[in-house]
Amino acid sequence: MSESVNLQRDTLRAATSTVSLSNRFDRRPLLVFWEMTRACDLACRHCRASAQRHAAPDELSFEEGRNLIDELAALGSPRPILILTGGDCLKRPDLFLLLDHAAARGVPVALAPSVTPLLNVGAIRALREHGVRSVSLSLDGAIPATHDEIRGVTGHFEATVQALKDLKRWGFHVQVNTTVMRPNVNELAAIAAFLVELNVDAWEVFFVVATGRATAGLELAPDEIHEVCEFLLEASRYGMTVRTVEAPYFRRYVKDRAHAQATDHLDQESSYLRDDLVARLGESHRGLRAPSVATRDGKGVIFVSSSGEVFASGFLPLSLGNVRRQGLMAIYQDHELLRTIRAGKFRGPCGECEAVDLCGGSRARAYASRGDPLASDPSCPYAPHAAVMLGVGAN
Partners of 299 in the beta sheet? Predict the structure, then answer.
C-alpha cells in the first residue's frame, strides 16, 4: 500500500479513535475540499460548480493557495486530507508547484480531476512524481449513452474507462464517483459490477442535490433512496469500499445491518438492484466495506471555493466567510452555523432522531429544499411515516 494511502488511513483512524465522540470534529475537519478553479472543458448537467471554460479572475493565487496548505500543516498530526477539485484542477497552471508544497509540509493530498485530454499518461506520470497517490474520477453510467449524455461529451465514457485503467496501472488508489439520479439509477448494479471488474478501490455515490446546474427533478424519492441504500450495502461486499455523499443516512443502514448480523436477526429484503448485482457477480460472503465515520456538511467536512469563500460543503451555497479575510480553521471552529450543525441542533424530525450524531441528514438538501440548513432532510427514508414500510428498528 502506498505511503499516501497509509497516511490517509492513519488520518482517518486518528480522527475517529483518539477524540471523544462528542467533539472529534470540533477542532479540525477530516476533509478539506479546495475548488482550485471553476475552469473545465465539460458541461455536466448536474455540475455543482456551474463550471465554465476559463478561469475566473478572482481565483485564489498561488501564494494564497500555499497559505491555505500551510494552515493545514500547522494543525499537526493528524492533518486533514486536502482534496483538490474544480472545475478541473488540471487547468491550474501552478498545480504541480502546490502539490510539491503540500508534500513538503506533510499535508496528504487527493485529486479529483475531470476526464479531458489534459488527463493523459504524461499528466498521470507527473502526478505520481509530485506525490499524489489517490485520484477520483466520475463515472455516471454503465453504458456510453448514459454517461456521455450526463457529461455532455461524446466518447467521454471510453475516455473515462481508459483513464481509470491508466491510473490503476500507475499504482494509484482509485476512487470512482457516481452521482445517482433519475437518468442512471437503474444502471447502478451494472456500474458496480463494472467497477469490481476494473478493480477500483472505492466507490463514492453522490445523491444529487438541486444546486448549481442540478434540478430537483433529478433527485430520488425516499423509497427509491431506500432501495439504493440497501443495494449499496450489498455492493460493498465485493471488495471495494462504498461511501455516500449527501446521504448520511446510509451510515444507519450500515449500523442496522451490522447489528442484525451480530444478533442473527438478518432479514434481507428483495431489491431489484441487489438482485441485478448478484446476477452479474454471484453471491458474495465477504464482510461489508462501508465505513461509517459520522461526518456531514460542516462536521468533519469543509469546502473552499475558487475565490476563497468557505462553505459547509460544495453543495451548500451559503457563505461562511473567506480565507482572504480570516483563517480557515477560525471559520471552521467558530462559525455559529457550523457549531450548531456539529451539535446536531436541527429542526423537525432530524433534530428528534436518535441517529442525529451518526447521520443528521444532508444539510445541503435541507437548504436547497427548504431554504434552511438546519431543517430536516426531506429525502430521509427513515422519516416517521416510513418506519413501518422500511421495517427498521429504533436501534
Answer: 296
Residue 206: partners with Cβ closer than 8 Å, 6 or more residues away: 177, 178, 179, 180, 244, 245, 246
What distance lies between CA 355 and its chain's CA centroid?
Answer: 20
Q: Is-contact 84 109, C-beta < 8 A?
A: yes
With H, G, I as helix, E, B as strand and everything else as coil, classify residue 347: coil
Low-confidence ranges of the chain (pLDDT < 70): 1-23, 43-53, 212-216, 261-270, 383-395
Q: Provide the pLDDT for residue 1.
A: 36
CA angle 377, 378, 380 (to 5 degrees): 75
Longest dimension (CA), the chain: 59
Q: Which helix (H) or strand (E) holds 96?
A: helix 95-104
In angstroms, the CA 71 to CA 194 distance is: 40
Phi, psi (5° rounding) for residue 135? Answer: -135, 140
- Give me the pLDDT at residue 39, please: 92
pLDDT tens-place string over residues 223-264? 999 999 999 999 999 999 999 999 999 999 998 887 776 665
The confidence score (pLDDT) of residue 218 equals 85
How many CA atoms, within 13 angstroms, populate the side-chain half-sphere of residue 354? 8
Q: Specify the CATH number of the domain 3-20+29-297.
A: 3.20.20.70
Q: Measured between alpha carbons, how far is 347 from 350 in angstroms, rounded to an integer?
A: 6
Give every CB contact of residue 68 below 8 A, 6+ residues apart in sequence: 34, 60, 304, 323, 328
